[in-house]
Amino acid sequence: MPDSNRVALLYVPESTFGVTPASPTMSFARFTSESLRQETQSTSSQEIRFDRQVPDVIRTDLNAAGDLNWELSAPSGATPDSPANMFDSFFRAALLSSAWSTIQTVTGNMDAASGDNSFNSTALFGPLNAGQWIRASGFTNPSNNGYFKIISKPSSSKIIVAGQLALTTETSASRTLVQGPQIVNGTTFQSFTIEKRYTDLVNEFAYLRGMAIDTMSLNVQRGAIITGGFGFMGVRETSGTATLATSTNAASTTDVMNGVDDVVNFMENYGAGANDFDITSFSLSLQNNLRALTQVGSLGAVEMGTGSVAVTGTVQAYFRTKAVFDRYLNFGNTSLALVTQRTGTTGGWVVDLPRVKFTSGQRVAGGLNQDIIADLQFTAFRNPTEDATIRIARFV
């Protein structure tokens, strides 16, 4: 009898929807559970028989669907879309993003100024872009090192940034700023062929084609591993006796990340209220509102339609002051950003929601001997300056 521990999942991007590339190099996925399967729609014949029996059951349509659940691991490979790291491919597909941006590194004499929260140089910052994330290193004061978002770029000699702490004034010396590769929500559709290998059986395989990511979730809890999942929609499932892969890429071996050691910062309003927002949990849900396009004479989806991107979630934090909660009461705009970095490395992910409204909230005394928790629900929507609803950056 087969064991779940012996199942392997492999994937390859499709160039044509529902068609596995010829002689594919497939990559192994890291996962904790999966429910990828075919769903069949059927109906019973309405023909009347004198003996009360149903004469036939007819298949009317089918599709493939299911979830791939995972524990978040640090990025691997110096450049994005590393064959060994499924998050590079699946995050991009989930956001319908066309490509990861190019990593940019600037090194040289620069200073940090607390007056306007800026880094300054002599025309070093040409490759850097407003709205994107950088990692600063080499500064003497620890508050000037770490992850910052470029709020504006007045010139190639000055960038205004936001972060957990206001910058401390520091005179010019050799420093380094790295702008990590980033993606934002877009309109580029990507599907995959996924292969299941039942490795403790002889020549038993399942293939799911035209698998596109309709939903994505992310969950950060105190004292727990950071987890999430991708929800797929696809064409159909078939069985086979041999692998589709001509060659394979091994899965990454980077460490799994947790909500204690590996969350560098959680920023509301890009750190303006950092001391007022100590979170206990954060969850995010993205939905692409995909729809299968079917037609007479074809079984299963012939194409996949894309809908609007919907990003919602919840955040819970110790209630300390009214600053954050007033943004809910007044229905004001804010932003949320989760910054992760695997302990002992410089590898991690930044999930950035540049424009958010809290749509529900409470700060109640739930019972005896309990903390007062600000429990907030949010919806992210388009930031007109950045033309983005969600951004993900990677650093290695």
Give an account of the 3D structure:
A hairpin with an 8-residue loop joins β8 and β9 (146-155). This protein has 396 residues and is mainly β. 38% of the residues are buried. It has 2 helices and 26 strands. The strands form 3 sheets. The chain has an 18-stranded mixed β-sheet that branches. It has a 6-stranded antiparallel beta barrel with strand order 6-7-10-9-8-11. It starts with 6 loop residues before the first strand and ends with a strand. It is globular and about 90 Å long.
- Structural class, by secondary structure, is mainly beta
Average of the residue pLDDT scores: 93
- Shape category: globular
How would you characterize the largest beta sheet? Answer: 18 strands, mixed
Approximate strand percentage? over 45%
Radius of gyration over all CA atoms, rounded: 24 Å
Question: What is the N-to-C succession of helices and strands?
Answer: EEEEEHEEEEEEEEEEEEEEEEEHEEEE
Uncertain residue ranges: none
Please render the helix and strand layout as text:
Blueprint: E1 7-13, E2 25-28, E3 33-34, E4 37-44, E5 57-71, H1 86-94, E6 104-113, E7 118-121, E8 133-137, E9 146-155, E10 158-162, E11 170-179, E12 182-184, E13 192-198, E14 205-221, E15 227-234, E16 236-240, E17 247-249, E18 263-268, E19 279-287, E20 291-293, E21 303-305, E22 310-318, H2 323-329, E23 333-340, E24 348-362, E25 373-380, E26 391-395
Parallel strand pairs: 2-17
Antiparallel strand pairs: 1-2, 1-13, 3-5, 4-5, 5-15, 6-7, 6-11, 7-10, 8-9, 8-11, 9-10, 12-26, 13-14, 14-15, 14-16, 14-19, 18-23, 19-22, 20-21, 22-25, 23-24, 24-25, 24-26
